[in-house]
Every structure is written in C-alpha cells, then in structure tokens.
Amino acid sequence: MVKNKHLSLEDRCIIAAMLKNRDSFRTIGNAIGKDPTTVSKEVRNHLIFSKTGCMGHAYNNCAHRRNCKESWVCKECKHKRLASRCWACSQCNSFCNNYKPDLCTKLQKPPYVCNGCPERSHSCTLEKRFYVAREAQNEYKSVLSECRIGISLSEEEVKHLDSVMSPLIQQGQSIHHICANNKDTVMISESSAYRLVDSGLITARNLDLPRKVRFSRRKKKSVFKVDRSCRIGRSYEDFLAFKAANPELPITEIDTVEGKKGGKVLLTIHFVKAECMLAFLRNANDSQSVLDIFDELYLDLGQDVFIKLMPILLGDNGSEFSNPVRIETDHQGCLRTHVFYCDPSAPYQKGSAERNHEFIRCFIPKGKSMDDYTQDQIQRMMDHINSYGRPDLGDKCPYEMMAFLYGDKILDLLGCTRIAPNDVTLNDSIFEEV
User: Fold this and answer.
1) What sign results for the dihedral spanned by CA atoms 318, 323, 329, 335?
2) DSSP one-letter code for 218
3) Alpha-carbon gap, residue 321 to 269, rounded angstroms
4) CA distances from 115 to 11, 47, 73, 112 (A)
5) What is the mean pLDDT of residues 135-159?
6) What is 142-209 written as a DSSP string?
7) Regarding predicted confidence, which is higher, 302 or 262?
8) Same domain for 206 and 119
9) pLDDT-derived band of residue 252, with 50, 70 and 90 as boundaries?
10) Based on the domain organization, do 325 and 401 belong to the same domain?
C-alpha cells in the first residue's frame, strides 16, 4: 500500500468508475493501493451537489412531495398545465408554506454519493451528490495552490507578533537578533518575520531595517489571508451555479474603497437590484473590521431582515474578505448569507458596485487620505449619492427603489436619510454641513 503520496487523476478516474459499480471503499482502496479511509475522505471532500429531478419529474426535495395535495400555490402560475398538482412543478419549493426539506438517507452512509444508484434517474427527485474525477482533480489542484500562498497565521497571532517585534525593530534591532533572543514569544522563522514586514501586517516597516533597504525589493507580492482556502466552493463559477439554482435571491456586492495607502478605508455594500450603496469607515483594511460591520448590521436589522437583504454576497479576492465562514455565520453558527468571490483581476464581474464608486470619487479623489473623515460625514455623502436619480431606475433614486422593494423601515434601520432632489450635491462641500 502506497503511503504519503497524493492521488492522481488516474486514481480518481478509477474511484469514479468503481463507485458507479457500487464497489465498497475497501475494494476501491485495494485497487489503487490506498487505505479505505483515504478513499472515503476523498469522496466526501469533493462532492458535487446537483438539484435535478428524474425522468418525467422536476426537482422537488419536499418531505411531503409524495402525499401533497396542494394546488395553485403560486399567485400567477406560469405552468398552467401543472397548476392542479404543485408537487410536479419545479417552483413549488420556493412558494409553498408547507415546504419541508428532505434528504436521501442513503447519502448519510457509504458511499455518500449517487454514482451508480438505480433510483437517481427513475424515481428520485431529491438533491443528488456525485463524485466526478475531473472536477475532484481540479478542486484538489486549487486547494493545493491556495494552501501554499499567504501567511499561515491568524489575526490574533499577527497582533501578538506586532506587539513584540515592532518596538524592538524600531529600537534598531535586526530580525535575526529578535528571533534568536525571543524564541518563546516569536515562534516563527526569520523568513516568516521578514514576510510580515514586507506585507505591511505589522507596525514596523522595511525602512526601520537599515540593512534591508540596501537591497531591491522582490517583485513577488505577499498576501495575508485568514483562510487561505477561502475560494474553494466560492468561486465565480460556484456563484453562477448557486444563482441559477436560486434565481429569486437578490445579489449584494461588497468591496473596499481606498484613499491613501495604509490609512482608513471604506467598506461598500451595494444592493444591485436597487443600485443602493452603503459605506462604512474602517481604521484599517483588515478582516476583523469587516466582520465587526456585518455583525453590527446583523444585530441592528435582525436575523430575518438581514437574510432577506443580503442572502448572497459577491466580493473580490482582497484579504479583508478572506474569512468567509465568519461572514456567513453568526456567533451561534447559524447561516445568515453566502459569500462568493470574483475571478482574479475581473472587477467587471461586480460592475454595478464599481460604477457606483465613481460617485464616491466625486467627494474623495483617489489617493486622498480618509483619516480625517468621520462616519457621519461618510453617511451624509452616501445619502446624497443614493438620493441622485438614475436613468436605469426610470429616473428614480436608489432610496426610492429600496423603499419600494423592502419598505421605508429598512432605510430607517440602516440610518439612511433621503435628500430632496434639488438639494442633492455631488462634491465635497457637503462635508462642511456635518
């Protein structure tokens, strides 16, 4: 039995073929020279979920689907032919008040997938799970790549190292001296310590290292991410698939607007359907400040309103969004949203938010420091921007669209104030009024 060796594409093809034949994990393991637990972990780590029905029946995972007598659940049913039997319609799960999700009990035990199941195409309308060799190989390569980039430290560990290293560096001590004499508190290698300084994650800078500034800076950019595999299952392709399966859910785009490098930044939350944008001032462009804002919004809005407003979040690959699990769940671990990421260097994939940032630049030009601004000033700026009529909205303003879609109470909870059309100002003179 081969140990300490990664599975190859050929191994994964054998696994997929033998799963189709309903072979056990032990039989598959013997065929590829691996332990049965390795095969089990491989299958469970690379599941593909599919919301498809079977021959002659649409997807329906309601527990009452076999004995359901509901009819005309939709107010305006587009499937007149099926209106008298809602269980046969692909939309009934979304509109029926008696809907109760169901899961195939066979998926709770080996082989955990529907490969080779005789019922999947003849009688099963539940959500299905598959193991596909090519997709598993691509996901494995992506995970391997993600795990080898960035810095393997939590935010708390970085703050601790900053408190120890930065004062000593600013006293003129070298990285080598600090690591050699503080082994109990600085438990990282010298190269990792240099990467912390290069990345700007601690207070000390390269200019504080006299010998370091004599050498040319490496072109490779070091990126700190809280969860280095955060994109797995949250890529733009995953976003498109999730959106196709849940077309009724609105999209919210999140981004960061910078002023002067290293200073305060804005977190923008853009509701695409209403073209309405919120902006929150942050002292630093780190992950924790983003979590604090979403946690505060969650408390202010309440669980039901938050989930209704922001069921899908689409952001870029910035390190400030690299802790998706904490954004997606509250402190009790309850799911409150779904986070997805645009492809690298593809800002057009969240073009609605990028276009709206042009209004912010009318007030705060690119490169100008935001350190002197307050949240009250930022909120007033957004009030003017969101009160400005848009041709795409039939000359209505984003605040009007938000009130139409969600009610006036939402704007009050978000602390938004509508500005009269003739009083809307799109320059920095409005900051003097706060």
Assistant:
1) positive
2) P
3) 12
4) 16, 11, 34, 9
5) 78
6) HHHHHTTSS----HHHHHHHHHHHHHHHHTT--HHHHHHH-TTT--S-HHHHHHHHHTT-SS--GGG-
7) 302
8) no
9) very high
10) yes
Q: What is the pLDDT of residue 41?
A: 93
Taking the C-alpha atoms of residue 350 and residue 341, their distance in angstroms, rounded to an integer, is 10
Continuous H helices in 302-374: 303-309, 324-328, 351-363
pLDDT of residue 434: 46
326 to each of 152, 256, 295, 387, how far by Cα in Å?
A: 18, 18, 9, 32
| pLDDT at res. 192 | 86
In a domain, 37, yes or no: yes
* Residue 317 domain-assigned (yes or no): yes
Strands 251-258, 265-271: pairing kind: antiparallel
d(CA 122, CA 149): 45
Where in the sequence is the domain holding 179, given as residue range(s)? 155-214
Residue 71 lies in a domain: no
Residue type, 172: G
Average pLDDT, the chain: 86
Confidence of residue 19 (pLDDT cuts 50, 70, 90): very high
Contact 300, 413 (CB under 8 A): yes
For residue 279, CA distances in Å to 239, 285, 377, 408 come to 24, 14, 11, 19
| pLDDT greater than 70 at residue 233 | yes
Mean predicted confidence (pLDDT) in 328-354:
91
Tell which residue, 134, 151, 131, has the closest CA to residue 8.
134
Same domain, 276 and 373: yes
Tell me what pLDDT residue 18 has: 94
Q: How many CB atoms lie within 10 A of CB 267?
A: 22
Task: Tell me the sheet residues that pair with 50.
Answer: 128
Tokens of 112: 């955990």
Phi, psi of 344 (to 5 degrees): -55, 140
- CA-to-CA dists, residue 82 to 59, 88, 97, 165, 172, angstroms: 14, 7, 18, 69, 78
Q: How many domains does the chain have?
A: 3
- Report the DSSP beta bridge partners of residue 390: 396
Of 379, 385, 380, 363, which Cα lies nearest the Cα of 259?
Answer: 363
Same domain membership, residue 159 and residue 142: no
pTM of the model: 0.56
Per-residue pLDDT tens for 26-57? 999 999 999 999 999 999 999 998 888 888 77
| Pairwise CA distance, residues 140 & 144, whole Å | 6
Do 297 and 190 share a structural domain?
no
